[in-house]
Every structure is written in structure tokens, then in C-alpha cells.
């Protein structure tokens, strides 16, 4: 055993457990409790007692069209994050891994959007999309074309997705590039001697050997799509136009703090947590290798025999 005496570890473990209890688990339980009460009086009549309404807020979920839009947009974002964030990051990482001298420069350039505040990026792209004087419309006008309302209902979702996806490519780029650096050059040299092209090396060497890194990136990207909030809110607050650009995070925020409907906002927060757990477990099950599944089944079989 690495540590013969376990009790000194409590000095480091207990403070973090207390912190999680106070700022994560207790608020989560309180959030569930709040969802069972009518909390509108907290603003209208301060000091009054909340009225118990049971599962009324949960019944409202079944008829909430805005929630359906938010869920659909969030799941669309999940798919887009895997394809564009992780996909583009993988392509960039493979290309940069072939460069030795300027690799650190590319790391810095691609990671730079992560350092910038999402609010600042949102304001920047909002200026790009402005109908009057926006950069994109200035380019169109210089080409003799009419200006475009980039945030109209038909294009608003795409215009919000572009900066959201772009801002996180560098994050997964660094993760994947770090994974690529662990692959020995001797493997690629041996493959090249055997006549394996660079393109085939990516499929038969690179992808299998960094599969755990890619699966981690996919899990982070998919679960992160459920937490999208700040950048879409800055570009199109309140799900503008007409609420069609709402995500789960933005819809929860509008309901809770713009409309002061805290009890229904608590239900939406619980929905986000439930979706997050389901999605992360689902992604883990799908991406689990055959060997890992067999090992998990073997451990369960051993535990049953012991029981």
C-alpha cells in the first residue's frame, strides 16, 4: 500500500467534502424543495410565506413550448460540439503535431480564445452582426450588396453557434495535442517503412492510440453544451428573436432572474442536472471499449459470488 496510515489523508479530504456539502449538495436539495413551492411572492410580497404547490411546476414542463425549443437547441449544440469543436481540434492537433519548431506558437494562438472572457467574445460578435455599421454588413456594402439581418429567425441559431463553437476549439486542441505527444515517433517511422501513408497512419495509429483522450474530449464537449449560457445570452438576450435561440441555461436564467419565477427556474435547474447525468452516463457507455465492458462484467460477477 502507498499509505500505511490513512487518517492523515482526512486532513486533505474532509475540507473539500465540507466545501462540496455547503456549496453543492445542500443548495441542490434546497433547489428541489423550492421547486415545490410558489415563490412568486418573494418579489411581489416580501416577507410572506411560500405556498406549497406540489408538482404543479413539473406538470408545467409538459406544456412549455419554450422549454422544448431550449432542449432541442441544447441537443443540437451537443452534436455540433462533437463534430466541430472536437473534430476541428483533432485535425488541427494532428497537423500541428507534425511541426516541431513553432508548435508552442500554435498552442498559444489556438488556445487564446479560451483566455478571453465569453462575455467579451459575445460583445465582439454582436458588433460583427449589427445591421447598421456591423463589420459583416460593411463588407457586404463594400461589395455592392444589401445589408443582412444576421440575427433574423432563419439564421440566428447558426450565428450564435459559430462563436460558441469557435471559442472552445483551442481547449480541446491542447488536450488532444498533449495526447498526441505521448505517441512515440518510432511507431510512425516503422509504419512509414512498411509503406503506410500519412493519411492511413492517422486512422490506424493515431486514432486508436488517443481514443481515451478523444472520449474524454467528447464527454466534456457534450456535457459542456448543456451549460452554454454567457455567450448566447450576450449576443441574443432572452432567446431573441422570439425565443428561438434559447438554450437550457439561458431559459433557466430568464425564467429565474428576468421573470422572477424562481420556483419554475428551480425545476429547470433540476432538469439541467438530470440531463447532464444522463448524457454523461450515456456517452460513457457508448464510448466504452469492449475490453472495459468485459472487465466491468467480470467485476460484477466476482462481487455477486462474494455476496
Descriptive overview:
With 307 residues, the protein is mainly alpha-helical. It has a single domain, classed as MetI-like (MetI-like fold, Orthogonal Bundle), CATH 1.10.3720. It contains 15 helices and 2 strands. Strands 1-2 form a two-stranded antiparallel sheet. Helix 5 packs across helix 8. It is globular, with a radius of gyration of 24 Å. The two termini are 25 Å apart.
Q: State the share of residues found in helices, binned by percent.
A: over 70%
Q: What share of the residues does DSSP label as strand, in percent?
A: under 5%
| Total number of strands | 2
Distance between the termini: 25 Å
Structural class: mainly alpha
Into how many domains do the coordinates divide?
1
Number of helices: 15
**What Rg, in angstroms, do the CA atoms define?**
24 Å
Contiguous runs where pLDDT drops below 50 for at least 5 residues = none
Reconstruct the topology from this structure.
Elements: H1 10-34, E1 37-38, H2 41-44, E2 51-52, H3 56-60, H4 65-97, H5 103-115, H6 118-129, H7 135-142, H8 156-181, H9 185-193, H10 198-209, H11 211-225, H12 230-235, H13 248-258, H14 262-287, H15 290-306
Helix pairs in contact: 1-14, 4-8, 4-11, 4-13, 5-8, 11-14, 13-14
Keywords:
globular, two-stranded antiparallel ribbon, single chain, 72% helix, 307 residues, 1% strand, mainly alpha, MetI-like fold
Gist of the model:
The protein has 307 residues and is mostly helical. It has helices at 10-34, 41-44, 56-60, 65-97, 103-115, 118-129, 135-142, 156-181, 185-193, 198-209, 211-225, 230-235, 248-258, 262-287, 290-306; strands at residues 37-38, 51-52.
